[in-house]
Amino acid sequence: VQLVESGGGLVQPGGSLRLSCAASGFTFSTSAMAWTRQAPGKGLEWVSTITADGRTFYQDSVKGRFTISRDNAKNTVYLQMSSLKTENAAVYYCNLRGTRGRGTQVTVSS
To answer: What contacts 13, CB < 8 A, 6 or more positions away?
Structure first.
C-alpha cells in the first residue's frame, strides 16, 4: 500500500486548498478512504471519510467548508478545503484503514 499526499501549502485565512492523495498497491475502488490531521502539539484527529460507494462523512467543525471526493479512474482521493481558518493548520494525512501516508503540511496564516 502506498499513499502519497500533495497539495498542501501556505494560505491566508479564508482561502482554499485542494489536497490530493494518490493511492496504489490495493483495490482503490472498493476501499473507503479517510483524511486525518495533526496540528502542532495535538493528537491525530479524523477529518473526513468517503466510502467505496461515495458516501461522505465529516467532522462537525469542517462541515460545509471541506469536501471529500474520489476519482477511481485515477486512484486518487481529494479534500477540497475552503474558508480555511488558522485552526485548520496541520499535517493532513490520507488513510486506508490503519495505514496513512507521510502527510502534507497545511499552513493558514496572514
So the answer is: 84, 85, 86, 108, 109, 110
Q: What is the dihedral of CA 73, 83, 34, 40, to 10 degrees?
A: 130
Instruction: Give residue 9's region: left, alpha or beta (phi > 0; psi -120 to 50).
Output: left
How far is Cα 52 from Cα 28, in angstroms, rounded to an integer? 8
Q: Distance between CA 12 and CA 68 in Å, rounded?
A: 21
List, for residues 48-63, the tens digit of each pLDDT value.
Answer: 999 999 999 999 999 9
CA–CA separation, 94 vs 77, rounded Å?
A: 8
Q: For residue range 7-43, what is the model confidence (pLDDT) as tens digits?
A: 999 999 999 999 999 999 999 999 999 999 999 999 9
